[in-house]
Fold this sequence. Notes:
With 280 residues, the chain is an alpha/beta fold. It is built from ten helices and eleven strands. It has a four-stranded mixed beta sheet. Strands 3-5-6 form a three-stranded mixed beta sheet, with no helix packed on it. Helix 4 (84-90) packs across helix 5 and helix 5 crosses helix 6.
Amino acid sequence: MEATTQQGVNWNRHTFNADISMQDLVDSYMFPFQACVEQGKVSGLMCSYNAVNGVPSCANSWLGETVARGEWGFDGYITSDCDADGDVFNSHHYTATPEETVRDVLLAGTDVDCGSFVGKNAASALQKGLITEADMDARLEKLFRVRMRLSHFDPVGPLQKIPIETVCSDYALSLSLDGTAQGCVLLKNDAAALPLKASSISQVAVIGPNANLSQSIAGYYGPHNPCNNSFPTLVGEWGGWVVAVGPETRANNASGRSLGIRGGKNTCGTSALVQTGNEY
């Protein structure tokens, strides 16, 4: 949840507290994460901005240490969402001082602070006796164990031997596209409308804020000019069939979020309409 307003009150992910029964939490919400840890053998978990039953996720030792590491056998590192450690103090007001926040997130098993909050306040917390060097070493141990598995040190591992040029090879791009296609989830398919048949469709309208947004997304999580500034999108995949894409002008959908539409041709004869999600 990014943000929502109910009865005039604004809630956002930085201040939200998920008040949930233990049965619902364990049976419904935590089950997929448990499967990822126990069956998928993931090496990384991320604690979120929100609180769960009054305790911010990144300061929740029950989630990070008791459940993930103790009961599920998680053997990796836990990172905060960016600035989520700071939210423990600044947004949730869970602790009285920044130093107490550093103590709580370290003891909760949060190994990485994606941000600067812990870095700015750890020395003060150490001086005040709220944390020890052993507390910091415990977090560093988790991180260096994962780095050693990845062969970041000598000897040079197989991942480090892969040249950067491989990222934009035809094979890598094809694999990336295939992974994206396999990751899609079809929730509804009225009248067996999908898959689309090229022989019976002449035009396609791609509508939605993310219809042509790959450059912005790439810049957020990665380099700003990957593969010679090539930014594959759903619009690009449909090629000449596309007659309308966002986000040039604005119209609203049923959820109230703005949809971007740019008229390229007369769309009255459009045979198919594809919506590509929302901003979040």
